[in-house]
Structures are given as structure tokens and as C-alpha cells.
Amino acid sequence: MPVPQDYYMSPYVAEFVNTTTNIAYLYLAFYGLRNATRNNQHGVISVSYAALALVGVGSVVFHSTLKYTTQTFDELVMIYATASVLYAIYGLDIQPHYRRALGLFLLALVQVISLTHLFLGESTMHQLTFGVMVLAVAGKCTHLMGQVDDAAAKSQMKRLALVGSATFLCGWFVWLADDYFCPTLLQLRAHAGMPLGFLFELHGWWHILTAHGVYSYMVFVEFLGARTRSPRATGGAAPPRVELVWDAWVIPHIITAARGEARKTR
Fold first, then answer.
1. Taking Cα atoms as reference points, which of 159, 171, 245, 253 lies closest to residue 215?
2. Which contiguous run of DSSP H or E holds residue 255?
3. 73 to 14, 79, 80, 253: CA distances (angstroms)
4. Stretch 126-131: mean pLDDT, rounded?
5. Which of 37-46, 140-149, 157-166 has the least mean pLDDT?
6. Helix residue ranges per DSSP H, the chain
7. What is the mean predicted confidence (pLDDT) over 192-221?
8. Which contiguous run of DSSP H or E holds residue 242?
9. Cα–Cα distance between 233 and 212 in angstroms, integer?
10. Residues near 69 by Cβ (< 8 Å), separated by ≥ 6?
């Protein structure tokens, strides 16, 4: 659990930093949705970005109230968001009827997890399922990246996967440190005072880092999806050329060839 002092900034917000740092989820989610719309990448990838925003909303509600019901909501939306990414990445190279079966299976799975978590208070299944889903997404991304023949595209994808994995793992280690070194962190915050004490709110850094890591993998899926769009989706034409761009050197997004040409003619 995070170790901030409750209600020290406002009588209406239990954990100020842990609440406000969820802006990272919301900003990256809407940033991804905007770019997916510009690239005509609708459907499941948009659902994944929307689910990322829902993770931010759930975390805001929990950290601002610290109620059990809001904690449950915060935990469950993480499963929903991961399931949407899992569906998106595994649905890229399978037939439509298998894609529908996958969707029904994941829908049933998250419903079972939700019911057991809500009515039985079972968290072990929730944590195990989340971990397996994350590993399944990473494994499938690695597999699909190995099938890309374009050396330049593969290089971009490797960088994207490396950044996403690194930021997510850094966030996980920061979360562990926040839990393990709780007394020391409280002393450091008290000694530093505010606003420098905010830097030692490590659970807030977990939000920022994991938001970036998950978002990077969503862009990875969007990248693959744009490169492997079916002839039906492209009106019989070949899939568009896709370029990976980094805004401010840290926030990735893709640009299709058609969109790039449109930008040049402005």
C-alpha cells in the first residue's frame, strides 16, 4: 500500500499526490485516442485507450476517498484495460471467428474475476490473472515483432518495446520501494518539507511510470495494427507506411503515410 499522510493538503482529498499523478493516465489515454482517430485506427485500439483513461479515473476515485468499494473499482479496471490490450494484440493475426471466440473468452474471464473479487474478496486470482495477462501481451508482442521484415520498422518497435518495458518495470520497483521503505520515506518527506517532499511520494511515480509503460505498449499494438491492416480495411490498397514519432523525446505515437503527406501540404 502507498504510505502518504492522509488529508494533509485538503480535507476533501485523502492522498493528494497519489490522486493528482493520475493525470498521466488521463493525458496519455486522450493523447492516444486523438492520434488513433487521426490515423483512422478505430475499434479495439480506441477501446484500449479508453480503458487506460478508466484506470486513471478509478485510481483518482480510490486515492481521493480510500474507500474499500473504490479500491475494488481501481483494481478491477486494471484487469479490463489489460484484457482489451490482450484482445487487440492477439486479434491481429487470427481469423474473425477466432477473434470473436477470444473476445467472448476474455469477457467471461473478467466477469468471473470481478464477481469473485466483489463477493468473495478474493485478490489472489485477480493478481495472478493480471500478471499472466501482462506476460501474455509481452510474449505476443515479441513474437509479432520477430515476423516484421522491415529493418527500420523493427528497430523502431524494439525501441518502443524497450522503453515501455523499462518504464513499467521502474514503476514496479518504485512501488515496491514505497511499500518496503515506508518509515524512511516519511522521515525524508518531513525533513525535506513541501514541495520537495512530493518527490518522495513514490506511489505517485508508480502512476506516472506505469501509465507511460502501458501507453507505450498500446502504441506498439497500434503500430502493428496499422502495418497489418487487411485489404478490406484499406479499400483493397496495401497497408499505409507507418512512422513512429516521439514528442518531446518521451511520448511516442504513430503517423501513417497519408497523414504525413497531409501535414506536409499544410
1. 253
2. strand 251-256
3. 17, 10, 11, 29
4. 84
5. 37-46
6. 16-20, 23-38, 44-65, 68-90, 96-120, 124-146, 151-180, 182-192, 202-227, 257-264
7. 88
8. strand 242-247
9. 29
10. none
pTM for the full model? 0.85
The confidence score (pLDDT) of residue 259 equals 53
Nearest 5°: phi and psi at 21?
-70, -10
pLDDT tens across 56-102, in order? 999 999 999 988 888 888 888 888 989 999 999 998 888 989 999 99
Average pLDDT score over residue span 28-53 = 90
C-alpha–C-alpha distance, residues 234 and 244, integer Å = 20
Between CA 51 and CA 25 the distance in angstroms is 10
Q: Tell me which residue of 68, 104, 102 sits closest to 87, measured CA to CA.
A: 102
For residues 170 and 2, the model is more confident at: 170
Whether pLDDT at 266 is above 50: no
SS3 239: coil
239 φ/ψ sector (left φ>0, alpha ψ -120 to 50, else beta) = beta
Please list, residue by residue across 224-260, b when 16 or more beta carbons sit within 10 angstroms of its beta carbon and e when fewer do. Answer: bbbbebeeebeeeeebbebbbeeeeeebbbbbbeebe
Distance CA 187, CA 260 (A): 51
Asked if residue 238 lies in contact with residue 227, where contact means CB atoms within 8 angstroms, the answer is no
- CA angle centred on 250, ends 89 and 197, rounded to 5°: 115
